Amino acid sequence: MTDPILEHLGPLAPLAGIWEGTKGDDTAPSDDRGVEKNLFRERITFEPLAPVTNHEQILFGLRYATTAWRLEEDSPFHEERGYWMWDGRAKQVLRCFTIPRGMSVLAGGTAMPDSRSFEMMAEIGSPTYGICSNQFLDEEFKTVRYELKVVVHDNDNWSYEEDTQIQIKGQSELFHHIDKNTLTRVEL
After folding, report:
1. Which residues form the THAP4-like heme-binding domain (predicted)?
2. How many domains does the chain divide into?
């Protein structure tokens, strides 16, 4: 039996379920503020949630949780929790999430209900699609822009690429923290 909420999720509908990726690639700041590359595996769970109404705005969405592990380790190095939302009237995809490093992001973009690929972004200081960090991160590793590209390949595979642009204290160039992976459905 199909969840009736899925028909209202627009381009997010194919993501409902549990997904695993085993060939993730992470380029991140190293301990010495240089470049560190890690291969990782991850598990993402997307659960449909009841419609959310903001007066005349109706959002349909997926509650999600992500956990990632370096391939050679048993303890996770990254977790996040949040929501992916669809505003069908405005044709907006939204992703709001927090990570336990003391950061929250609300990213958004335009998509059609049947889109199989879409992009979302957030910028520091934006009153709508923005980024908020704790004091340490703001001073030492200030995230100034977040970009996400999603491609749904078929009903059982999708991929993403994230570019978190960070101004590291004492460095003139932005650091592009890149995460990408292809995920396979393990459960609907």
Report:
1. 9-185
2. 1
